[in-house]
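Below is a filled-in request sheet from our internal design queue. Each sheet records the structural input a requester submitted and the sequence that came back. We keep these sheets so that new team members can see what a complete request looks like end to end.

REQUESTER: design group, bay 2
PRIORITY: normal
MODE: inverse folding
CHAIN LENGTH: 268
BACKBONE (tokenized):
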């Protein structure tokens, strides 16, 4: 009889009773994998928290699984990416294991307002912005609208996600080439394509939508004017629920490969 991923998950859950979030030390789950999760575990351990890892079946031998105090398989049959986008499954597992905090890391569900909302509804603290803020900033078209309303200069682009090829062609004529296609609900270089000629637009829109869907669980993309050899300057700002806000000064992230940062230089 085959030992399926679904059966393995069911056995793992059946073998351990549900844990109350009030039992023992505070428990933090990293809703991510690999070095991202390991760094989260390191910080949590320094704060005397108990760490909880999740992993897809394909990641059962991944190092992060063995760096946590506990580890549980999720997303049976959903694949090595889909498992980490399974909001219902992750929140259910966190609730069953008595998790107090869930840290999304970056990528996957880190900018997903529905995940933050589901965590809060389950009584689990989401280590990140409130759902309403994620809806404003996680959706890049909403962020563009917010910047525009605040008087911040933005590049010519679409005010809402592009849903059809026909819409993409129409908007591209208004923006002009070269332009860039970007995932509306993600980052990290995924779901991005530079379009230099009109004949390539429809194909690259399809590619970007497919990659965005696989990486973030949402195929929405938008178009924006492309600026070759642009300077990429960031100012990191941190704030907490008590009203404390600080910035970490500026950094230059212009050196990139495939729209992903290779080196960050500070000060810029």
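RETURNED SEQUENCE:
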């Amino acid at each position: 009889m085959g030992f399926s991923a679904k059966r393995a998950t069911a056995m793992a859950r059946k073998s351990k009773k549900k844990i109350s979030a009030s039992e023992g030390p505070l428990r933090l789950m990293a809703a991510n994998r690999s070095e991202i999760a390991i760094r989260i575990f390191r910080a949590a351990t320094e704060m005397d928290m108990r760490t909880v890892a999740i992993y897809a079946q394909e990641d059962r031998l991944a190092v992060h699984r063995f760096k946590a105090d506990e580890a549980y398989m999720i997303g049976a049959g959903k694949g090595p990416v889909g498992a980490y986008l399974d909001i219902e499954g992750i929140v259910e597992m966190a609730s069953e294991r008595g998790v107090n905090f869930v840290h999304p890391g970056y990528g996957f569900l880190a900018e997903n307002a529905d995940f933050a909302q589901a965590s809060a509804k389950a009584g689990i603290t989401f280590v990140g912005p409130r759902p309403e803020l994620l809806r404003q900033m996680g959706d890049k078209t909403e962020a563009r609208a917010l910047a525009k309303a605040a008087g911040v200069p933005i590049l010519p682009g679409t005010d809402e996600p592009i849903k059809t090829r026909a819409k993409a062609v129409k908007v591209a004529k208004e923006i002009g080439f070269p332009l860039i296609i970007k995932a509306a609900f993600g980052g990290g270089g995924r779901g991005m394509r530079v379009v230099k000629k009109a004949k390539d637009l429809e194909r690259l829109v399809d590619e970007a939508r497919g990659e965005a869907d696989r990486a973030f669980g949402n195929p929405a993309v938008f178009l924006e004017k492309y600026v070759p050899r642009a300077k990429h300057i960031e100012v990191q700002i941190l704030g907490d629920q008590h009203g404390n806000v600080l910035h970490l000064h500026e950094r230059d992230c212009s050196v990139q490969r495939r729209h992903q940062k290779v080196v960050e230089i500070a000060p810029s």
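SHEET NOTES:
- The CA atoms of residues 61 and 154 lie 45 Å apart.
- The two ends are 60 Å apart (CA to CA).
FILED BY: M.R.
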